[in-house]
User: Which sequence fits this backbone?
């Protein structure tokens, strides 16, 4: 069964939660500030999790149950046995590209993307070395294509005997209802055929 870390759990682990001896007035002001900042952020980005499709489909041993695991807020850990990971056996597809298209229902203005991946070369899970993001307003023509190369620091984890989760975060500048991500491995050898993701996050605002 999956475990979920709630916002309350995260708050209890924050430095703010440890300052229990602060005066009531200061605690009250901090609470109001946190509440208001959360309200503003929610007002800017609140929306149902986007629907999405992927090509090729994930392997049955690492499925995307219900087509929702990449947007359910649950993050995989170091073990590739963690059921929160979605996996593609990249070698079976001639293009060696995993393509995921998200439908946000309405046109949005996007500012940032975060991919939560797993590196574990000994298990054949190669780092994502390049990903391409593009936008569409009709679901057919994708424009404003941007290619992001990962850094040495993002590729190096996972060289040892255990896997290491890696977050690939990049700024975006694009509008659209649909967002397509293409994940590519520059080392397309048979020894490193896997791509693992547990979550994809976007920062966005309603388009004017």
Assistant:
């Amino acid at each position: 069964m999956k475990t979920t870390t709630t916002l309350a759990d995260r708050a209890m682990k924050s430095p703010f939660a440890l300052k229990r001896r602060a005066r009531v007035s200061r605690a009250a002001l901090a609470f109001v500030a946190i509440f208001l900042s959360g309200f503003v952020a929610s007002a800017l980005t609140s929306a149902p999790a986007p629907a999405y499709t992927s090509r090729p489909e994930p392997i049955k041993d690492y499925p995307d149950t219900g087509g929702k695991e990449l947007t359910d807020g649950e993050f995989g850990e170091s073990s590739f046995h963690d059921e929160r990971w979605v996996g593609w056996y990249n070698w079976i597809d001639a293009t060696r590209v995993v393509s995921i298209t998200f439908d946000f229902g309405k046109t949005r203005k996007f500012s940032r993307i975060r991919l939560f991946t797993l590196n574990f070369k000994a298990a054949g899970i190669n780092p994502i070395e390049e990903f391409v993001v593009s936008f569409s307003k009709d679901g057919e023509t994708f424009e404003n294509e941007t290619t992001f190369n990962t850094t040495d620091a993002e590729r190096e984890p996972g060289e040892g005997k255990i896997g290491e989760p890696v977050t690939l975060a990049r700024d975006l500048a694009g509008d659209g209802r649909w967002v397509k991500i293409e994940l590519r491995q520059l080392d397309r050898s048979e020894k490193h055929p896997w791509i693992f993701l547990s979550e994809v996050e976007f920062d966005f605002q309603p388009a004017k």
Q: What stands out?
A: The first helix runs from residue 7 to 12. Strands lie at 51-55, 86-89, 97-119, 130-136, 143-149, 164-184, 194-206.
